[in-house]
């Protein structure tokens, strides 16, 4: 019997569909596994920074002096005390992982012995990160950081670099001068004349100010990670004063944990006795009691506490991108499921 004209033979098509549908099911299983694996992958929040070689501190000083000479001023003289204070500052920043000024730079350099007790002025530049020399001076390209190069009063300079436990560099530059124009001063007895090896502990202990005793003496007990330099700054005294009050060797400023140091003496004050006053007894006159009038009881109005709004955490850049990727994969999967439904084998007629 011949086939009617215009009737399509659907057996090859249904045979293909019967092959495609199991393949689609396997593909969907693989697709779901891929989605689960992608959801479990960690996405980086920020790219890692590449490390570079450290900048030599003397190159930092030479660049500042070149800018200063270009402005018509004599070059700054390297001072051992300023080299020491810059090194201590860089070590403190690195140990605490903080790229910020410690404050009172003129007080810190004066406590270390710069100026021999005269009035001093100082400025501090810091830079934190994997810079080259040009990068450091790009960060310092503003009037405040350029004071050592644009102000004739500055006479001395020091610089240092320290690394954190992760290898992150911290650069510090100190420039200073003494009121009156004295340059390259001789350090006070007991003041550091060079940067000693292992002079700064990696652990920086805060200095707790001791209260005066009953005899007026202020005595500080040394904790681990403290130095004469930090103690002098905390109490606002000079290192030389602590050395003289405790009869310490002028050539050795080493102190020890639990050592007690006399910081200062506060004059005691004895109050003068006040004259005694004899009270005068007056005759008692009874006071009439007022008539009590009952007051109405105030009704309390209930107050309603607003339900705090629920704040959803913001997604960072990496997780937002992960969400978009997962959404795109889900849309593609949904399209494939719809396509499989259209290609499903139609029911055969009996």
Short description:
It contains nine helices and six strands; from the N terminus they run H-H-E-H-H-E-H-H-E-E-E-H-H-E-H.
- Which overall shape is indicated by the principal axes computed on the Cα atoms? extended
- Average pLDDT, rounded to a whole number, is 74
Sketch the major β-sheet: 4 strands, mixed
Computed CA radius of gyration, to the nearest angstrom:
39 Å
Number of distinct beta strands:
6
How widely separated are the two ends? Answer: 20 Å
Task: Give a topology summary.
Blueprint: H1 11-40, H2 57-70, E1 77-78, H3 80-96, H4 105-111, E2 120-128, H5 133-139, H6 147-150, E3 156-163, E4 169-178, E5 217-221, H7 228-235, H8 239-245, E6 260-265, H9 317-342
Parallel strand pairs: 1-3
Antiparallel strand pairs: 2-4, 3-4, 5-6
